[in-house]
Amino acid sequence: MTEQQAVLDMLEILECGGCVEPAHFFTLMRRTFRIAHLLYLEAEPYADELKVCRLHHTFGAYAAEIYRARALHRIDPILKLALGGVRPVEWTMARHRFPECEPLFEAAQEIGLSTEGVALPLPSPAGRMALLAINVNMPADEWSTYRRHHLRDFQLAANLFHAAMLEHGAMAGALSVRDMRLTSRETEVLTWAAAGKSYWEIATILGISERTVRFFMTNTRRKLNVVSNTQAVAQAVRHALIPTV
Amino acid sequence: MTEQQAVLDMLEILECGGCVEPAHFFTLMRRTFRIAHLLYLEAEPYADELKVCRLHHTFGAYAAEIYRARALHRIDPILKLALGGVRPVEWTMARHRFPECEPLFEAAQEIGLSTEGVALPLPSPAGRMALLAINVNMPADEWSTYRRHHLRDFQLAANLFHAAMLEHGAMAGALSVRDMRLTSRETEVLTWAAAGKSYWEIATILGISERTVRFFMTNTRRKLNVVSNTQAVAQAVRHALIPTV
DNA sequence: TTTTGAACTGTCACTACCGACAGTTACGTG
DNA sequence: CACGTAACTGTCGGTAGTGACAGTTCAAAA
Question: What is the pTM of this model?
């Protein structure tokens, strides 16, 4: 019951936003749970690869160097499963389902790291994805029981920490979206443009003149501070100014 | 300890993907926890309003009719906070922070509904947002304790259910994304187009001829099955085929 | 009542885009 | 070796997008 209490206390701290430093969060997690290591990764897809936005972990510089030098990110099934899905990913399950990733787990054992753990996918706005990987150092059957009892704690903690990271990082980009207020007509026209309609088609659809459609698009380009309809649509989709049709 | 066990069993059912029907999930939740009502909403922003993609709840047709007739969605702070944020939203907290939403809670009391509860934001891919609202029927102090113990359960259950909903809903659109594989050059060209560059500019940037840029864009349009560069960029941003610049 | 903002329209000249024609070069796989 | 795929290039003719000119109408806010 003491452990139970410690867990609840920790979650309360997180919910009150009292933990925005990754190092602080990792320390808190390792003190509260029987966790060996933690890794937080935020990335966005880029042409079959990944563009890493944020990366924090407790595996140490040596492990990171090994991982990078051997290009283990190319075979890491946990990255693919967690960043591409929405459910918790069990490390051993991933290991069995993807035999080609053995070098990854061999490398882990080589430097004395456990191969038991779970990775929690954390969807972010704007198509980005993040994950919190939790590495534990205990026998498989013990981990099975421990996981069953604490996955909910891991999930809530991960969500709250991820929220804190998002709130912190979003401050920079938030200002530029301020004057991105489009009128209803501008939004309509832009939406149809994103659907591949020409000015003439949009004019016909909305029952207005082609010139007026161009007028709205010009205003939209000016407001979004862009030089082409194409760029305007890219901005609009990214900032969710137009609906998914 | 019996309740504890029931909770863990329920979470296990959810994790194994054994619950994709909203009605089934709601029943399970109400049987496991002391929950009065549940609401699951998936929506995307649309010009200061919301476009509802999925909506399931247990409040009944009468409550829904009241909500719609009085246009309570316009003042509902829980919608705004949960769909716009990433942290759990406490109903009473929202009520105190937004005095203009009193009609909402008055309407709830009028038809005999409790005003205690919590809403869990559930970020989805592609800029969409979802929430699971949990409504309980207990005194404030009791709810405070209950919430403290079970928020983690709610969060994990919500995440797993949301995952099931996404996996189920994505089946339809998943096929079309299959052949959306762009080559590295196509991605590069499309990325610059999304940045508002003309063919001539992209050609200069990449050090190739303007004709070649057009060639890649034509291939891209064909692969994405669209009719203009503008539409191609909209698709690409939505499916995260190009990075956020 | 004046002012502001949104919605709306017309013409001109220029540039950008787009489809269809017809190719070359290089690399890896069966 | 043949085959497929990716990267690359040229020309022609038509359509679409873009900026700058100069307006009207209506409703709500100051």
Answer: 0.78
